[in-house]
What we know:
The protein is mainly β and 229 residues long. It is 7% helix and 37% strand. It has helices at 45-51, 88-95; strands spanning 76-79, 99-103, 105-110, 113-118, 124-129, 136-145, 155-163, 169-171, 176-179, 188-200, 206-214, 218-226. The chain is extended, with a radius of gyration of 24 Å. It starts with 44 loop residues before the first helix and ends with a strand.
Amino acid sequence: QYGYSDGSYGLPHLRSRMEIPNGPVIRGDDIVPPELTKNTSLDTISQLWQKAPAVVSSKCRSPTDDATNATPMCPFAWVCGLQTMKDEKHLRRMMRPRVRDVDGWNAEKDSGKMGYVAMKTGASFTVLYEALPSVVNSLTLMVMKSYGEKWDGSKISVKVYQNGDAGSWIPVMEEKEITGFHESHYSVTYTYNMDFKMELPVGSSFKMDIALIGGSYFKIQGMAFCGSW
């Protein structure tokens, strides 16, 4: 019965509940798995698992904790394909309050793969977030790379700024260029993590400018502005 959940996912029920003498001890769900390192091996993993400490539940936030004390680690984030982002209307609803100066970008599904898509040469848009509820110090973009004439030369430029004095904007990272074309004959989603040179404090604002600087097509499948975990 060890590790077997009878009755779940159509699995048949066990005929008996016989336990193996000196068999493995079933640990509860409150156990922290042992750390996987270069020294971890099949010879030691069982012993390490038995010694793993239980989670101290009293140190974890309860779902009933005052929600006003919670601040989002990623005040603006979305990933296509998740339950809350399964079609174009959900992505448009997420982007609409934040995007400005949209030219040639839209939420589209192509070959069953959704994303925020540039569909013409020189397409551009800006994301604006005012009065951050939590500290932000990084940007993550999930972009699709593909092949063929439609993707040939595909490349975007990404710039992020923090608000400064008298309406000015201060760069918080070096300009990042990301290509959307590769030679492999399949489509793959790549993740790009970009750390900022400075933290964006609570109450500040940021803007991100993205422009298609190569080709005529590009697809972004995820975006997250986050603080440190």
